[in-house]
Design brief:
The protein contains 3 helices and 9 strands. By secondary structure, it is an alpha/beta fold. It is elongated and about 55 Å long.
């Protein structure tokens, strides 16, 4: 980065000042999930930590599940977003334990899922529970007259549902 002249001989070198961890968290709020682009990686709850380790910035992520095919894309998107802000020494580390849970999705993320037409997970997550509750509200019309079509939807973390009131299909983000 180039030096910025303030006045006379007072020069501030942008390389001397590292952005704060809080500022980096704000940057990450603009990095969309590649499979559900209306929610950020922060809103989805997969960013677990942001730390400076010496001169290196380390962002720790926990994928939604260990075999998630979007993990590599998420890491690249995070690195690119931070490099665009002028931080070159950045790396993304994966942490598989504790395993990600839908409890980590923020309230804003849940609202964005619903507005996008995906029913957010209902209730608290329970280890090993990938089955939807008996009733899932339609994210489009709000009806509870819905039915599971398939336990497996457009991605492994979603199930296919249909609303009997508005007749629209929708995904349900499984609680786990």
């Amino acid at each position: 980065m180039a030096a910025t002249r303030l006045s006379g001989s007072d020069v501030v070198n942008a390389l001397d000042a590292k952005p704060s961890v809080d500022e980096i968290w704000r940057w990450l709020e603009d990095v969309p999930d590649p499979e559900i682009p209306v929610v950020s990686v922060v809103e989805l709850g997969i960013v677990r930590a942001v730390d400076w380790r010496g001169e290196d910035l380390v962002v720790t992520v926990t994928p939604t599940y260990s075999g998630c095919p979007a993990t590599a894309v998420i890491s690249l998107d995070i690195e690119e977003a931070i490099r665009r802000k002028g931080v070159d020494a950045v790396r993304v580390e994966s942490r598989l334990s504790p395993a990600w849970t839908t409890d980590w999705i923020t309230d804003a993320g849940r609202e964005k899922l619903k507005a996008y037409g995906i029913a957010p997970p209902e209730g608290a997550a329970c280890a090993g529970m990938l089955k939807a509750p008996a009733i899932v509200a339609c994210p489009r019309c709000g009806s509870h007259d819905t039915a599971e079509v398939s336990r497996f939807g457009s991605t492994p973390c979603k199930a296919s549902w249909r609303c009997n009131a508005c007749l629209e299909p929708f995904d349900y983000f499984k609680s786990f």
